[in-house]
Amino acid sequence: MRNGADECGTIAQVGGTQGTNGSVAASLRCIVYENFVTTLRRESISRTDRRVLIIAVEQNHRGALAASRALAGSGWHVGIGSPTEKSLAASSRSTRHWHHVPSPERGLSAFLNAVQAAVSTIGYEIILPGGDAETLALSSVRDSIDAVVPYPQHEDVVRAFDKLELARGAQRAGLRTPHTVVATDEALAKTALPIVVKSRLHWSPGDQSAPRRWETSLHDTRTGATARVSQIRAAGGDPLLQELISGRLMHCHIIVDRRGEITTCVQQLSEPLTWPPDAGTRVRSITIPVDEDLKRKNARFLSDLNWFGFASLQFIQAASREPMLVDFNGRLSMSFEQSIAAGSNLPALWAAVSVGAEPGPIAPAALNVRFQWLEGDIQRAIIQRRVGLIRDVFDCLSYARGAVHGLWRIDDPRPALRYWPQTLSFAARTLWHTGKKEQGAPSIDQSGSLPCRQEEVDEHFRKQSSCWDRLYEDTGLRGTIYRKRQAVALRLVDDLGLPPGSDILEIGSGAGSMSLALAERGHAVQSIDSTAAMVELTRQLAKESGFADTIVTAQMDAHSLGFNDNVFDLVVAIGVVSWLHSPLQALHEMARVVKPSGRLLITTLNETALNRLLDPWTNPLLAPLLNTLKSRFRSTGYNRHHPKTEAKPLRCGYVDRMLSHAKLQKLFCTTVGFGPFSVRHHPLFSDRTSLVLHSRLQALADHRVPLARSLGKLYIVLALKPVSGPIEAPHQRA
Predict the structure, then answer these.
(1) Domain of residue 24, residue span
(2) Closest to 585 measured CA to CA, from 239, 236, 233, 186
(3) Helix axes 583-593, 652-661, angle to 10 degrees
(4) With CB atoms 3.0 to 4.6 Å apart as the test, which of 77, 201, 319, 582 could cross-link to 449 if both were Cys?
(5) How many whole angstroms separate alpha carbon 195 and alpha carbon 185?
(6) Helix, strand, coil share of the chain (percent; to 5)
(7) Is 294 a domain residue?
(8) Is there a domain that residue 700 lies in?
């Protein structure tokens, strides 16, 4: 404006030298210019006055996509902050800007700087978070952000997100809640099965040791519940136990203005279908009339929290009983599309009350508006198969017609097109895992547990201990593969350059050959095994080899290591993980005892090994067909299924995700061993031919030839425990 005023002054001055007519013309030009600038200013204010930034760290956040579409439709200028530009919301035509915003779990300072940079660049007025971590992080640093964070005081936000305080506040408001207690050892022993385990807070600001959100999990055994509780505790969380309530999920979507009054309420009732089943997210729901008595209790509850803005209250509606409040969410909802289709533009109303604007007259939400989470519904159908696989999937597609979806929109197809390959991949993976589960392969529950008994594994190795010490002397294919595995493992250890006297923990020592090789390199070895017979073999070998003082043996369970934190320079678990009933819990224990910047070396059976793919009886892609045929035979009384204790093959990608969950970073991986090739345990080749095939295929794998390098029988991984936060390092795939 300073340049504009100078120009007017210059025009007037020049006009003054040309007489009266020139002066009038100059004045007119100045007035026109000032009017033009004023108009530009007003248009600029009009454009920038309605700018909203949505923070959605989760790439496939359907709530962020729905909010972006709804806000853009109401005239808001929408920006998305996320770690990747490939997120659903960022790919929508309703989104004007994308900003790189890291997850708050990576560091609160980096998160704050990225958000403030986006606000300063575009001039956003309001910030709407997509997840619990984003909400709590923004709330805690709101004083440092030049935009409205639409929540009450931070203490009230924490109190609302606290699951234990939630139950207490609900009771004060007259709302029923399931029995919820702190997960003490006594409570674990007394709580009736099945048990719901949840974290008191899904995330705490500044906590980089926990995931962005602790998902609620359901456990049918105390072992699984105990493992989950230990996992949450190990990451610094406060686990809670809650009784399982059966019934239909019901949601109340509410907007509360700054006076504490409810301006709109949409009530949604789900069908008794969720993914995952029994303790997951609804996949189908319909809008129903608002229960006025429940609405009054919700108002008292939200008033007790000093809440304003958006709130989603989740209830369980059991037959002939009052609804029971089980959860509270004050972030972008995954089912916004249903409320929007019913006539309540909740994101726009939330933004309006946040800046103190009057939302205007609000019509009641339309009834009987159906919503479907199609992807989750299909996954549920493939797993549950209520009336058979084909009929259940067809029922999903039939329900989709006429329902509201959070992803598919004909006027905004890019998010759906971006998600479509993931949908196909998800269907294939689910069918794969369904077949493997029925075949007896590991089925991973939400605690990462495998349904095999540790006692059976210990008994198996006790019986095998007499011949285990001769395994590496076998001249056949089996011995060759195991010697190759040990040679690769020792080469990786040598490449680490550990100084003599380094503390190394070997888990699953077997007959002790690996412990002996490590001791011969000058390292102090702590050797453990869960089987007493194996511990004795290792102790005897150490004594006979003169390393009794260097190799310390003990009988110990990998799921509960009796060592202090940050003790070992290297943890080695050769051929152990595939035998564990809870591999994720064991990996967390290994990560706990290894020092920062220490290494972890593990091997597992590869589920996609070449010999398994070539055998129709073990090929994961054929598992659904085989299991269907088996079930038909068993229904006729024919059953030759004799379960036996054996290691469970794991996908390499799944092992990598477990390592990442344990806050370990993969540095190197490869596969070794090809064969034996057989069909239904009948060998296809002689021992000599099998050895030749293994040698040639292994040579290709050693030279990192694509496909060959990932099809070996055994998967070997070297991982690093970062000092603090993620560390960039070479990342090789098998």
Answers:
(1) 2-44
(2) 233
(3) 50
(4) 582
(5) 13
(6) 45, 20, 35
(7) yes
(8) yes
Same domain, 566 and 605: yes
CB 210 within 8 A of CB 236: yes
Task: CATH number of the domain at 302, please.
Answer: 3.30.470.20
Residue-wise pLDDT tens digits, 517-558: 999 999 999 999 988 888 888 999 999 999 988 999 998 888
For residue 366, what pLDDT band results from cuts at 50, 70 and 90?
very high
The alpha helices in 599-686, defined as continuous H runs, are 610-614, 623-635, 652-661
What pTM did the predictor assign?
Answer: 0.57
477 and 533 co-located in one domain: yes
CATH of the domain at 537: 3.40.50.150
To the nearest 10°, the Cα dihedral for 404, 408, 411, 417? 180
Strands (E), 211-358: 217-219, 239-243, 248-256, 262-270, 274-275, 281-282, 284-288, 309-317, 324-329
Distance in angstroms (rounded) separating the CA atoms of residues 357 and 76: 14
Does residue 642 lie within any of the structural domains? Answer: no
- Residues in Cβ contact with 107 at an 8 Å cutoff, skipping those fewer than 6 apart: 208, 725
Is it the case that residue 11 has pLDDT exceeding 90?
no
Chain Cα centroid distance, residue 70: 26
d(CA 578, CA 186): 31
- The structure tokens 């008033």 sit at 303
Quick one: which H or E segment has residue 376? helix 374-384
Count of the separate structural domains present in the chain: 5
Please name the residues in contact with 260: beta carbons below 8 A apart, sequence gap of 6 or more.
Answer: 302, 303, 306, 307, 308
Q: Do both 346 and 360 map to the same domain?
A: yes
Q: Are residues 397 and 266 in the same domain?
A: yes
Contact 504, 518 (CB under 8 A): yes
d(CA 708, CA 701): 5
Q: Is residue 729 part of a domain?
A: no
pLDDT tens figures, 406-446? 788 888 988 888 776 766 665 665 555 544 444 443 333 33
Examine the domain organization and report whether 334 and 302 are in the same domain. Answer: yes
